[in-house]
Write a structure and sequence with these properties.
The complex is a heterodimer of chains A (381) and B (483). By secondary structure, chain A is an alpha/beta fold. Chain A has helices at residues 47-50, 58-62, 85-92, 111-120, 132-140, 174-183, 188-198, 213-225, 252-271, 342-353, 358-365, 375-378, and strands at 21-23, 35-41, 72-73, 79-80, 96-103, 144-147, 161-163, 232-237, 278-284, 304-309, 317-319, 340-341. In chain A, α5 (132-140) crosses α11, α8 packs parallel to α9 and α10 (342-353) packs across α11. In chain B, a hairpin with a 2-residue loop joins β3 (260-262) and β4 (265-267). Classes of the chains: A alpha/beta (381), B mainly alpha (483).
Chain lengths: 381, 483
Amino acid sequence: MKLNRRQFTLGSSSLLLSGLLPLKVKSSTIDNKKNLVVIMLRGAMDGLTAVPYIHDNTLEKVRPDIFVKKLFKLNSDFSLHPKLSDFHNLWKKDQATIIHATNIPYTGRSHFDGQNLMESGGVIPYKTKTGWLGKGIDVAGLDGLSMSLPMPLLLRGKRNQDNFYPSKFSMPSRNLIDILKNHYADEPLLKKSFDKLTSRPLSMTSAPNSKNIKTLARIAGAELKKEYGPRVAVFEIFGFDTHAAQGGADGEHGQKLKILDETFGVLKKQLGKTFDNTLILTLTEFGRTIVQNSGYGTEHGYGTAVLLGGGLLKKSQVFTDWPGIKKKELFEGRDLNSTLDARSIYCSAMSTCFNTDFNLMNKHVFPDKTLINLSNKIFKS
Amino acid sequence: MNKSFFRKVGFGLSVNEKVPENPLDWAIDQISVIPDLNWKGPIYSLEEMMNYHAEYNYTDRRVLRQSFKDSRKEYKRAKTLLKYKTGHYYFEPLWMSIRQNEAINGNSPVFHRFLHFWGNHFAIQKKNSMYSYDVGPYHREVITPSMLKNIEDLVYNVTISWAMIHNLDNSKSIGPNSPRAFKNMDRGKSANLNENHGRELLELHTVSPSAGYDQEDVINMSKVMSGWMHRIPKMSSKIHKKEENVPVRFIEEYHDSGPFKILGKKYIESFGTKAAKSMLRKVIKDLVRHQSCIEFISHKLCNHFVTQNPSSEIVNPVINAWKKSEGDLKSIHTEVIKQAYKYSSLRKFQQPETWFIQFIKMGGIKYFPNNFDYDFKTMISREKDQIRRICRNLGQLPFRPLQPNGWSDYEEDWLSPELLFRRIGVLNKIKDKGRYKHIDNEYLNEILKRNFDNSKEIISFLKNIGNDEKIIALFSSKWMLKT
């Protein structure tokens, strides 16, 4: 597919939330360390709430009760939700991009199948047991660390990944640790996890017990800033599935966008100059229906928007091959269509941040399809 | 005998219990009757919970937000007091204590393992505050009584329960050809289906995506379900203070009478309240007899109780029992137990809560607060909240799955370095609190004798470990993590 229709420029912000952040260590390219932060927005983030199409009043007409009127205007076609103020600040500094009308190649509208594919990068749900980010880290020859309780599928790969989530717990005696290490020898997964656990640096043996996303973002930011620190961080924010009470500026969707925005803001502040070498990228499983339902919410849809922030972006822009939102232009007559396989964005982001050839990344991480290299259009060379 | 069976389908044996002579009878007897509650502390009905939640909803929405609209600080203070008054922080720890008390001290741990399974299968999410009020009564009053009936009854009762109707937004759904939709159109208002419940009924609760349903099936399922709602009373009515906390009922005005077509089967129009009400049961009956539903849930049961990714040799007998009994839950559960016994040498990684309950029970650990009374005026004590906090630290709050498909039953999702650390860390912390003092070598031997076939191997494993860490080692061992 060629992106030859309309490409909009506008600005906005995005960010992330709740409880999980991955990091990475032992960069093979310390001289040019670039960080990739991924924020998973679970529940289907409505791209048309975050970045509404305002070229005409179509959206306002079909969403009379949930369309937000007081928006940050990005250009003549798109605006930004008012809760995304920090993202808007990035926009004003040429550090924000929105890729609109995009999604993974999945139209089944199931959260669980969709999230599985969003993380695995595959096309058949549950077929792949590793994630596209984990596989990309493998290709680049790096190690990874997630600051979360579970290890998200997104980060699972062949190499040992670690995860960390602040708590006040402590390990038992050295003697017992050694005995357990030997004891787990014939249990591959247990062994793998325990080996990682017992090789943690001192800085990860205890930490304030906080689930606050701002705290986690500060910790992640501090680690990403380190020359030999992690290069990948993953967060996730739940609760975008707003079948009811999606609301306007202060509704449920707006509140979730605010959490995302705060994450962008904290990372920007915490990373300081390192933000110039950082890319933040959002994922979601699909978008939501164009028309509001009786409960002032929306149903599962298809196309949505990806929000990117960071100094690795070429400029602030809304990048899209806009399909339109008139009835006849919608996917199955109800959803924003997707004109770009979102995996092209993921692959381009990894290629840029991991200093790895795009085609090599494509071949090993997304082998089912030749994706479009967006690096030159979206990212700084 | 492989004594891991007592952990596969139960929570292990305490040192006060005898090893059953016939493990199969021991287990099957437990799922043949609905057990009485062992819990002696306070307990509240769903109706009472709806009243507490109604007071919370009404006071917050209609009183506090108006009274303190100019002062966020004062509003937050008043809301905190309201939360105390309505048991906002009290009920979840209470429900968890009752749940875990029955597992540990009750006479039917096997029944409770199955109850935990179904509670997770028909998961209620933390999407607003109601979960902390209603999930306990939902398990007790909706799922438990259905567990000796047919799977059709279980699915139906869950589907029209207050908890699920609320959780999956069905009260927000208006059938497109319903009288209400036409009224709305006349007034220039929109009227749409809410597909959330209809979709999850197909995807998560019954046939799963393997049935190959499409969007039209989801829409038709949602139409069948339209009209089942906890209708919010009008502000002028006498019961308006209940907000949405009123019993679920079928309201024909919101129902789309069809005809419907779901998974290739046609259903004629459901005119009239009686026909419309019975339509949902008809459809559920067909769904639970669908091959995809039988295979999906049979596999899920075996995956939980027998081993991860069970082979067809393990699952097929459960499928056959389902078909032969036409969905009788006791027959299905019995076959699952038989497979767990037959394949007890196959191991299964235990979810954090199950593992922790086994630790408390087998280790004879002092765990529950002395009483669970509450004054409804102050924050609950840390002692009462301990059970909830431990489960949170282990990564599994049983009443708060992050997604509507409940907590995962796969090893990969529970074996990250941090989650493994949490298990060991919790055991270590309880040691620091001095709660292992009763566990000497003799006590340890009693635990091993009842619960393991490889006692000698375990004793050898423990021999170079200090007495105060032996119990940590045992419950961190591969034999306990993977039963």
